[in-house]
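Appendix B.2, paired examples.
Example (i):
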Amino acid sequence: MKSLETIIIDYLENYPPSLELFRSLKQAGNLYLIGGVLREYRDKGAIQDLRDIDIIIDIRERSRWEEILETHRPKKNSFGGYKLVCSALIVDIWPLEETWAYREGHVVCKPEEYVMNLPKTVFLNLDAIIYDFNENIWHDEKYLEAMNSRVIDVVLEKNPRILLNIVRAMVLKKRYGMSFSDGLQKIIREQMNLEKDFTGRLLEIQEERYKKVILSGEEIEKELEELR
């Protein structure tokens, strides 16, 4: 299997502005990739459609970082990071110390422990997969446990986008043929009781996130019915 770095660089060579952005980010600091792009690599040994990527950066060259922000004029995303749109690539990126769970005090540790604790900052265990791009090191124990147990569980319950994460959990459950933990089921039931048209709201969020139908209304309603 080719290394993840080789696959990403090979892919981005078809999109020169995105490749230039990625190289500039690597010069600005140590990069830590997280979530979906890593699952795709683990699933297929390849990246076939890299539309978006989540990155955490430990900034080393502040001037280079500020130059990137000045050039791309990013919007703030829902977790307080930056959304950069370049060519065919959407990059959501956070300075390491501004990771939402650290900034809000939901995960407390010393700054030198930020990297090793990144898997504790995500909502779902299937997102607890981190790749240290500069050192070629994986932090993926919780992710591997999830894949082995076939259970989707909650790592950090505090999250500003609970409903989005419920949609994502349902999509991942279907993709991998997994089940929900008791803790995740409880959270879904609690949210269900807060929304008058919960199925409709989840469908709206799915369309916003994926720009297509992955789960039909009937499939979502069936999932919810099993939790009632």
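Example (ii):
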Amino acid sequence: MKHIDIFDLIARKSEFVGKSVVVCGWVRTSRDSKTVAFLEVNDGTTLKHLQIVLDKAVIKNVDKVLPLCTAVRVSGKCVVAANNPESVEVNAESVVVLGECPPEYPIQKKPHSLEYLRGLPHLRVRTNTFNAMFRLRSKLSEAIHRYFLDRHYTYVHTPIITGSDCEGAGEIFRVSSLGYSNKYKTEKEYNDADFFGKTAGLTVSAQLEGEVAAMALGKIYTFGPTFRAENSNTARHAAEFWQIEPEVAFAEIDDIIEIATEMIKSIIGTVLKECKEEIAFFEKFYEKDLTKKLQAVVDSEFARVDYSDAINILKKSKKQFVYPVEWGCDLQTEHERYLTDEVYKKPVFVVNYPKKLKSFYMKQNADGKTVAATDLLVPGVGEIIGCSEREADYHKLLQAIKDRGMKQQDYENYLDLRRFGSVPHSGFGLGLERMLMYLTGIGNIRDTALYPRAKGELR
């Protein structure tokens, strides 16, 4: 069906003014009067709507095209918009209804809460909020790929089905080809009969396989879905989310902190430059001064604080936290928000966490109590990046696996990387959806994904 994208019509208006054009789209709003009617039509290529002017002397049966979300094909002349000389509109000569939309369409002109729209994931994309969200999500993904590929990283596709738990926390979704059955007397008997002949699950992280690639390719990154069977019904947690995970050979903790800083500034700068309309939309409806906040990240020096010092800052604050603060405790969202929003007022790396709080693969510091790990905390969200230098010493890594009661045989390939040409190497994970929360001011991670997955939520 030959037609012109509304984006091109608006962006290259000088090429089309005075010419006959054909556009397709869905009716977002409509107005009717005695002799003329107006449609605001959007085809998904831009956040902006295109006004269609319907002269009732020319267009018959106007009532059929007025209902919200009616799909139409419009032929007519492109002209300078009567109420905005910087834009264009189309004087319709014919309108064809491609898809009718009945009155019971559940998203009408009145404002709807994000919670209400969450119950309509198949339709909410048609609202301005989600039009802007998914356009920005696309541009952010492109900016991430561009950042790494421009710096000679290799993009690696790692497996989604895995036989090991990268984080060692046991929060994995099991993958099986067998249905429920009581004919298997033991777990081993069940696993032996299953597709892979052993326990399998959806990946919680691409890191272990990413390290394999980095030991040959030097600098790699992965970008794909990860899964956590974590019983956390919070605004920041999802059971399925997309994660960006670079792994860099010959890089220690300070090197990977520098890379993470540069990447965050680069991708935010790209979004500010190339998603101005979307950022303006979110600034108007979701977070005041959003542009100022994001530009400050691009321009500022990120703070850095040792975990022990951060604990002291929190204890001396005299603030009544819901979760008590002591050395060895895991930082909760309220602690992270205090550090970013009230103390530093900008992104901050918290470094050298107690090793009992972090994963088995992180490099053990000389003090025997902490590991070379850091989280990047940002105002308004909290943790957005988890980062560490990986343990390169075979014996220390093996002992960490044993200390946590993990099965050594599940990690033999990973241990081999420490036996054959081991080098200092580091990496981090950035959750795409949490980054989107920060970029848009949207407060719930469920509003950054097409079909959010959470405890008890599967559509």
